[in-house]
Amino acid sequence: MIDPSAQVSFLLDDEGKVTGWNPAASSMFGWTIDSAPGRFLTDLLASSARWDSLASSGGGRMHMRFAGGSEGNATLTLTRQYDGRGEPLGWSASVIVAAGDSACESERVGHTPLSEVVDLLPGTFYAINRAGRFVLWNHNLERLTELTPDELGAAQVMDMFEPHERAGALENIRRVFEEGAEVSMEMNYVSRSGRETPMLVGGARVACQCGDYLFGMGIDISKRRNKERQLMLSERALHAASNGVVITRCVGRDNLIEYVNPAFERIAGYPAAEALGRDPRFMAAHDFDVHERSQVRQAIIERRAVNVVFRNQRKNGELFWNDLRITPVRDEHGEVTHFIGILQDVTAIKERTAHLEHEVNHDPLTGLANRTLLWDRLDHAVHLAHRHGSMVATVLIDLDNFKAINDTFGHEAGDEVLKVVARRLQSAVRESDTVARMSGDEFVLVLVDQPSVRFTLRMVERLRSSMTMPVAFGGNEIPVGASLGVALYPHDGLGPAELVRGADMAMYHAKSNGGGVHFFSPEMRSADERRAALASSIRGALDHDELFLLFQPRMDARSGRVAGFEALLRWRHPEHGVMLPASFLAEAEETGQMVEIGNWVLDQACAFLQQLRELGYTGLPVSVNVSHREYSQFGFIAGLAARVQRHGLPPGALEIEIPEADLIRNPGLGRDLSAQLREVGVALSLDEFGKGISDLSFLQQLSVRQVKLSKAAVRDIARDGGSQLAKTLIDIGHNLELAVVGEAVENEAQATFLTSHGCDQLQGQWFSAPLPADEVRRMLDQRYHA
């Protein structure tokens, strides 16, 4: 049973939840001191009532639930509490149990001594006179201050405050006594033992028979202070965070922004004032990342966490990549009320990654797809073509005479040609097609969705035409041409490697036949297999001692004596017999074996010269033909010098024979090579003189021993009017003060004409076929002994 005289007091926050509870309240309502905080006042009512209505009315007579399940009427009184700044801070509640409507019961309760009530109150209770001394207090005040009753009775209330708090406390006490104000303030009380306790103290004026007093209470706010410090720390952390933080509140299908930190403002460009109260979707870049946005929507609906990366839009309209992690926040009932979004601007990372991926997959010079990306694109194209039953064309393009462009105009010009060709190719195909730079001057195109071979042929012809215009560079117009090979899926191959190999064979066939466009055919595969077999055989030719030299004499036109020799290479093939250089040197150039073969030829020629000198034939030089790949390599001159020294050869004994057109094509290299050969004691002989356009001023700058007439000029001597070219070339050579050699002399008419017009030396089958070294020695012995 509830004692009709019972009266309790407790404290509430602004939402009507219990913050302070004492044993008397536990006895009346059954809630323990530990379980009461956080529970709602309305839970004590037997009838329905809203907290806001109770707060506005200040309470009243209520039907309430008591300990043990009983119910009854009681009077609830709610009194507003204030902090030290005069701001509202919760409520104090008192409950008086009513025994029917008996006025005598009220009188009995009203006459209950205050000293019997104060120790039941939570926190400290005190009564202070105008002199600032305590006249009444409860045990909680004694425990807080660690003072005895006598010490409290003699204490001055202002001594309880820190020096910086006293002015505010004195003003509040004055207002209570002089204005009748209800006041409250926060203070830090330091007890005798040094324990510091933050308190919320307050009071109001109460008139008693003997005068006015300040009646007040103090509440320990340590827990609240700790929470405030934690909140302040959290807020500072949020402000200092480099990632954006957004807190939204769930309102139906929307999530309205309640908080954004400075990093969000910096990243999104929206001030907090423009973002608060809006759904974060206002930043969406609607035409991008549809799948990722649907993931976010679904996670919000299902009230679960999600992490996505997508693009949002800043206030200035700029797109940025946003790594967004969303986490739901649940209330005490487990319901999701808020979401916290952590967003990181990863635009720079995305751009850097895209740049690295581009560098990995694209050619740095032209910006085209490189070999890695080509294989990926071609594999994908073949996969789709197989699924859809369509055709894919693989086109391999090789520029004509690109090495000559580098040699003549320089590597910068070569690079410019490659870049211009790349742009032309890209502009000639569709966006769905791929243009790649395979290596050097080789390009590969992947043309998808080819409806017919005729359609492919038109596309390829358009490609070839787009490259025929010269490229302007450094005041020169550089001619550009190309050979194109085409292979089609599925006719010519079912996989990327097979298609590229087929296009390469077709291109090789085009190049061998003067350029243009060639489509792959099965016959090409047989020719390619023969070339591959030849290349494989060349690799073993040196190891198996299958290469050998023949030496063709050069005759002095006046005396008929031997004036020198030209070293000629032959290959004794185990299956095809003796092969001339024309049938295998081109393949040696393609496979990169020309340098090794050329070094062997030079070694053999120098050894032959040494043997001649040991036999007493000291005035017979030997000439060796060298290719551009050989003499342009690093260390070529040094290698010649070492050979000359190793074999004890005098200056001029070894001649290097180079076609005139090769030197004119790259004048700088020609001048350097000529000077370096002279320094190491090796003579320079120009082959095929007059085959093309001769630059006489350039030839005068070179240190040249002799010129060899072009074979065409010698061959045309017997034809009507054909002898004029040979005569003119002989005159030019002599005007340049150079010896003139007529080679490929096949008959008496040619020999007679060249001799009669002053040609210095003659060489050809009319005088002698190329001879092995042993026969050369016998021939010399017979001639000189005779």
UniProtKB/TrEMBL annotation:
Domain PAC: residue ranges: 304-358
Residue ranges occupied by any EAL domain in the UniProt entry: 531-784
Transmembrane segments: none
Any Pfam family matching the protein: GGDEF
Source organism superkingdom: Bacteria
Xref: InterPro entries: Biofilm_reg_signaling, EAL_dom, EAL_sf, GGDEF_dom, Nucleotide_cyclase, PAC, PAS, PAS-assoc_C
Residues covered by the GGDEF domain: 390-522
PROSITE patterns documented for this protein: EAL, GGDEF, PAC, PAS
Every PAS domain range: 1-39, 110-180, 235-304
Name recorded for this polypeptide: EAL domain-containing protein
